[in-house]
Design brief:
Elements (H helix, E strand, L loop, with lengths): L4 H136 L4 H14 L3 H13 L4 E5 L5 H14 L6 E5 L7 E5 L2 E5 L2 H17 L16
Parallel strand pairs: 1-2
Antiparallel strand pairs: 1-3, 3-4
């Protein structure tokens, strides 16, 4: 068998031309297209990684901001709760002080009204007692009221105990002025003379005596020798009445401490 070298050469040439054409027209465009596509993919991947990193950074930033906001919110809530608690305590304290002030004011007004009522009641009762005593003395004594007062005073002065008489004598020895005698009703000259003789006999023989009136004695006499004072008046009749009045007042819901007028002697 003979080899047609011309045909072989032609086939080789055709094969090389085919390879060159494939390389030129098919393989290189395909590889170039693949390279370009790979580059685009890599670029997009890089952009995606960058975007992902940016998103993660933004997410972290937002997370930090959220934590900061939560912390600030908790702090604001704590401050608000503390402020509300302080305000409540302040309002409660102000309310307590206001209620206490109102209570004191009410008690003061109540005390004033109570004292005024008690004073008017005692005054009215005292005048009634004076009227009753005056009627009794006028009906049964058979003499004037002032004379009865003077007689009673002289008897009481004569019957003073030794200690009270000693105090009056000592006061008279130290006194610079006269003895003072005050009565609830005007005394007649005879009654004044009777009292003056009793004072000279029992206290100070040479002292002068001044006379005056004091409606507050409520049918009685007061003897003032220097700093010593002796009083006999109808006030002792008011002691029991005032106790009864206190019970009535306390029974009506008003409680107070009453200072009773001295009914016998004071020094």
């Amino acid at each position: 068998m003979q080899i047609d070298w011309l045909t072989v050469v032609a086939q080789i040439v055709n094969f090389l031309v085919l390879v060159w054409l494939l390389q030129r027209l098919l393989y290189r465009p395909i590889t170039d297209a693949m390279a370009r596509r790979e580059h685009r993919i890599e670029t997009r991947l890089s952009e995606a990684r960058a975007a992902r990193a940016e998103v993660e950074a933004e997410t972290e930033k937002l997370r930090a901001q959220r934590q900061d906001l939560e912390a600030r919110r908790e702090e604001a809530l704590r401050e608000a709760r503390q402020s509300a608690s302080d305000l409540r305590r302040e309002l409660e304290e102000d309310l307590r002080k206001e209620m206490e002030a109102r209570r004191r004011t009410w008690e003061a007004h109540l005390k004033d009204a109570r004292d005024d009522f008690a004073a008017r009641l005692r005054q009215r009762a005292g005048h009634q007692v004076v009227d009753i005593v005056a009627r009794v003395l006028r009906d049964y004594a058979g003499s004037d009221l002032a004379g009865q007062v003077a007689d009673t005073f002289v008897d009481r002065l004569a019957n003073l105990d030794a200690e009270a008489r000693g105090r009056l004598k000592a006061a008279a020895a130290r006194a610079d002025g006269p003895v003072r005698v005050e009565s609830s009703v005007p005394l007649r000259p005879a009654a004044r003379s009777q009292i003056t003789r009793a004072i000279h006999a029992h206290i100070a023989p040479d002292m002068g005596v001044d006379y005056g009136e004091d409606d507050g004695l409520l049918l009685g006499l007061r003897l003032s020798v220097g700093e010593q004072t002796v009083e006999w008046s109808a006030a002792r009749f008011l002691g029991r009445l005032e106790t009864t009045l206190d019970e009535v007042i306390e029974g009506g819901g008003i409680h107070r401490t009453v200072r009773r007028p001295e009914s016998a002697e004071s020094g």
